[in-house]
Amino acid sequence: MSAVPAKAKLDDLALELKRGRRRRSIRKYLTAYGFLAPAFVFLIVFLFIPLVISIYLSFTDYKLLTAPNWVGLGNYEKLFQDPLFWRGLRNSFIYLIATPILIALSISLAIVVNRALKGVYIFRTLYYIPAVTSVVAVGMIFEFVFAEPSGLINGLLLSLGVIQRPINFLTHPDSTLISIMLVTIWRGIGFYMIIFLSALQAVPEELYEAAAIDGANKLQQHWHITVPGIRPSIVFVAIISSISALKVFEEIWVMTNGTGGVLDSALTLMFYLYRQGFIFLEMGYAAAIAVVFAVITLVFSIMNFRYLERNTHDGPQQI
Amino acid sequence: MKKFTVMLLVLLVSSLALSPLAAQERADRPNRDLTGNFWNPTQEDFDRWRVIDGVEEGAVIRFWPWALTPDFEDYLNQIIANFQATYPGVTVVLEGQPAAGARDNIRNSFAAGNPADVINMSDGWVAEFAEAGVLMNMDEALAAKYPDLREQYVDGAWTKVTYNGATFHIPWYLAFSNVMAVNGLIAEELGITGDDIPETWAEAYDFACEIRERSGGAYYAYSLPWGELAGLGVLNQFVGEGIPVFSEDGRSVVFNQDPAAAEILDQYKRLLDNDCVPRASLTDDVRRMIDRFSEGEILLLQTGPQLFRLIQENNPEVYDSLFLDQQFVGAANIRSIGGVQTLVVPASTQFPNAALAFAVFVTNPDTQTAFSREVPIYSSNLVSYEDPFFTQGGPSLTDQLRPLAGDYFRTAVNTGILSFPRLAEVEQIVYGEFQAALLGVKTSQEALDDMASRINAILSAQ
Fold first, then answer.
1. Domain B38-176+339-411 is of which CATH architecture?
2. Contact yes or no for B166/B133 (Cβ under 8 A)
3. I need a labelling partner for B297 at 20 to 30 A (CA). Which of A228, A243, A274, B262 fits?
4. CATH architecture of B179-224+277-331
5. Could B435 and A262 be called an inter-chain contact, meaning their C-beta atoms sit closer than 8 Å?
6. Do B178 and B410 form a contact (C-beta atoms < 8 A)?
7. Beta carbon pairs, A and B, within 8 Å
8. Pairwise CB contact (< 8 Å): A171 & B107
């Protein structure tokens, strides 16, 4: 007789436990979602909604001051026949040349300032200053550096008799983009140097000692220990710096006074997007450029990531 | 306590003693009284200034000047107070826009459906808003209803920008572009006097190479703001040389059909190729040209006197040496109207009469003369030039120009080139083709033909 109530009690207890677990589980999920909510709302408002609106606008003739009208694929058809779009795309890809240069220089600089030298912190700080300097200030500095005929470089070289006529840094279509790339490299070195510096400090010192005992010279040590050791950082920097290079805008705007350079020689895709959207007010067309550009950047980033990731998991190599 | 009282007294006495001195030091702002006010209007002034009918009682209007605050905020607040006393019951809210990004802010405010009621725009900005149909037509709202008021404005400034033949702005302050500053230090070094400086562009081309040679490559005669995207400078030059820009019916551009246009571009190319003007002229804007002048690189600077203060800030030594001459003229011997700052009223304003009244008030002769007393800008209202402030000159460089201004603005010609539809695209076309000619990518004639055909494609699409 007494076994039945005992079983019922046990069942009740099990049910109660189950309910308690579910309540705790719900509370746990609610807490997690609560923490996620602000970021999620932020992403919806500032990323997903603008993304959807941009895609919609790319099928319209929206001109900012007047209501949009549906034009179907009209903007995309015009885009692929637009020589300036192709020039912008070409220049954006040319700008990617800055990425390997930036990586090589940043790693070299990081190796130099990774030594326990007196006053090395001052140098680390100095190298980082361009990264925190406003692009307008950087533009003004380089306007002076590249100025003709009496800027820093031209004035110096002319007075030393090295050159007879000033170098046309920003007034010749062949040199404008390269000059602006130099500014980007100058601005970026310090920032990426810090990333590589932290990666370098995580490479075990014993590996270098072992390699030295095995007879490896400094160059071999760097090639076979340092580079594989900091490869995750290289992948990271390669991806973010190449996306930045594709998206370059501010330097071009500042260095060319908003013109895109002589004969549009520094016109990149982002700059062309800005010109169409915010100077010509062709927002629909600019949205089409933005959509195509986003697809290109996405594909490029995936390819970049896949290619570089393939070797990321390897540690330092055998000499 | 005693000590504190003595100190307070000393402070009070010294501040009283210093205040007239401080007022005397305001020679740059001569219309201020000792308390810093511009003027103390009487009821008679308020009655005289009340010229617009049907101003909405209880209206609250927002005013967006750009690049004037905080420097001229007290002037703006004073005129707002005067306006509110002129039209009791109307409130004006001042919302000054910084120079950087002002145009974008204005565009965004229209796109968001929340523009201010009275907006200050540079002349080159007006066309796109007029084209979009979002501005009050001033020919209908003011010129038709108040023809006497319309007559007061400088004609070239009233018609500076039109869309379909109508004006959508009220001109505010103007630039006096008939003046050329000469660097006295360079002139002295090269033994140049005012008589040696050419009067026409035709002479000025050779003069550029002569100065380069005479100075042994140390100085340029002048530089040119070819990097300035806005303003269609080269088309202005064509008008100055008597080359017709538009066809007779105004529906197409024809400047490429006159061989004189290609000759001008050839001359520019010659100057550039022979280093007679700085190669950086290709990318220089007006600001950079002023910097170049301030740095002592060039002898002559063609710009408005309102920008002389930049020279003074950059290099007082050069500023102190300046003397003035007239700008070069072309074969047509015309003086074109320079930059015009305008006031526009959105078509969607809730208080059209109050907004119009305020725009008219800001541009009335008294209010504008008071502004000219603050800073060397020029009134768009011809009645201002009857004021003794303008009829009598003064000792300073900019004071000397004031008596000349009235005549200049009565006769200055509007070249009409800011009335293109899709102006920003036209500017980009002119800029690109002009550079193609100067850099030898195309011949001058090819560049002009391409320029004209691309502009005509825009005109015919309207």
1. 3-Layer(aba) Sandwich (3.40)
2. no
3. B262
4. 3-Layer(aba) Sandwich (3.40)
5. yes
6. no
7. 66
8. no
